[in-house]
Amino acid sequence: MGDSKILTGRAHVFGDDVNTDYIISGRYKFKTLDMNELACHCMEDIDPDFASKVEPGDFIVAGANFGCGSSREQAPLVIKHAGVSAVLASSFARIFFRNAINKGLPVVECDTSQIEPGDDLEVDLSEGKVRNLTRGVEMDIAPLPSVMMDILADGGLTDYLRKHGGFKL
């Protein structure tokens, strides 16, 4: 992602241990495969109004262990289809982290304690910074390996492999 793409949006803040059932409830798993329809139910068990409040480019901000629980790929896809540009958390469940990268959803590991609901944020993945424009605070991002940045830049693992015919390590 050498083009230094900067993401901007508002923060939607959640706590620790947000599991994949909270992201998209299992009760919808077999009802439809339409990600746009499933996105209407994103985070609804924690915040029933989330899907109606989120705007394209906004961020989900959480504490520790975001995406714990089952390894459903629908979780990062639903977040992406809801219009969220990235998830910021102090830590991620490993399977969710990899699924998010593979699906082209940026996941940003950083200190989220200085971000409040509704804060305006700017995330620069290339520079490794999160700027809370509302509070005038800047946080460093745990850097992603260059291959993960390339996967995100190409829109996910499938598009990356199509473009490069394999991994360019």
From TrEMBL:
GO terms for molecular function: 3-isopropylmalate dehydratase activity. This is 3-isopropylmalate dehydratase small subunit. Signal peptide: none annotated. It comes from the Bacteria. Gene3D superfamilies: Aconitase, domain 4 (3.20.19.10). Coiled coil: none annotated. Keywords: Amino-acid biosynthesis, Branched-chain amino acid biosynthesis, Leucine biosynthesis, Lyase. It catalyses: (2R,3S)-3-isopropylmalate = (2S)-2-isopropylmalate. Belongs to the LeuD family. LeuD type 2 subfamily. InterPro entries: Aconitase/3IPM_dehydase_swvl, AconitaseA/IPMdHydase_ssu_swvl, IPMI_Swivel, LeuD, LeuD_type2/HacB/DmdB. Its EC number is 4.2.1.33. Catalyzes the isomerization between 2-isopropylmalate and 3-isopropylmalate, via the formation of 2-isopropylmaleate. Pathway: Amino-acid biosynthesis; L-leucine biosynthesis; L-leucine from 3-methyl-2-oxobutanoate: step 2/4. One of its GO terms (biological process) is L-leucine biosynthetic process. Residues 50-105 form the Aconitase A/isopropylmalate dehydratase small subunit swivel domain. Pfam families: Aconitase_C. Heterodimer of LeuC and LeuD.
